């Protein structure tokens, strides 16, 4: 059974909430992300023990993607993926930013040769490019 807390007075640790909401596989990984500044609560850096309440806005950076979410519910335990998605909602500005970054990534990856080792032709083109840049 799901045990979601809806009482706005209640709160829980940020690292535990991120783990329960399936942003990270372990609380230790969530801890590292918080300590390295990849998680911001209400626009400020925070500690793993920071208390999250319903309505809190979090900015989460995972790789090149920034997500801005609003906390909807708290959970006492880790949930399955479908239920965990109900713990938060992505804000409109966060959604627009994320989609823009994803489009830029897709455009850049189409230029990269990602099928094994470069061919002789690829190496020649790279060497020609390096020579032109150095000149």
| Biggest beta sheet attributes | 5 strands, antiparallel
* CATH superfamily annotation of the largest domain: RNA-binding S4 domain
* Main sheet: strand order: 4-3-6-7-9
Shape label: elongated
* Structural class determined from secondary elements: alpha+beta
CATH class of the largest domain: Alpha Beta
CATH fold topology of the largest domain = Structural Genomics Hypothetical 15.5 Kd Protein In mrcA-pckA Intergenic Region, Chain A
Task: Give the amount of beta strand, in percent.
Answer: 15-25%
Q: What is the residue-mean pLDDT, rounded to a whole number?
A: 86
Order of secondary-structure elements: EEHHEEEEEEHEHH
Folded structure, characterized:
The chain has helices at residues 14-20, 27-35, 81-84, 92-109, 120-134; strands at residues 4-5, 12-13, 39-41, 44-45, 51-52, 57-62, 65-71, 74-75, 88-90. With 135 residues, the chain is an alpha+beta fold. The protein has 2 domains: 1-90, Structural Genomics Hypothetical 15.5 Kd Protein In mrcA-pckA Intergenic Region, Chain A, CATH 3.10.290; 93-135. It has a 5-stranded antiparallel β-sheet with strand order 4-3-6-7-9. It has a two-stranded antiparallel sheet with strand order 1-8. A hairpin with a 2-residue loop joins strand 6 and strand 7 (65-71). Helix 1 (14-20) crosses helix 2 (27-35).
């Amino acid at each position: 059974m799901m045990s979601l807390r809806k009482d706005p007075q209640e709160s829980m640790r940020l690292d535990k909430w991120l783990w329960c909401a399936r942003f990270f596989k372990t609380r230790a990984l969530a801890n590292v992300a918080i300590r390295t500044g990849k998680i911001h609560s209400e626009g400020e850096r925070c500690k793993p023990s920071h208390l999250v309440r319903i309505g809190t806005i979090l900015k989460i950076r995972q790789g090149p993607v920034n997500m801005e979410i609003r906390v909807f519910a708290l959970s006492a335990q880790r949930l399955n993926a479908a239920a965990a998605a109900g713990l938060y909602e992505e804000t409109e500005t966060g959604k627009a930013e994320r989609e823009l970054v994803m489009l830029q990534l897709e455009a850049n990856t189409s230029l990269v040769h990602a099928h094994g080792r470069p061919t002789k032709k690829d190496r020649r083109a790279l060497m020609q490019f390096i020579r032109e840049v150095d000149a």
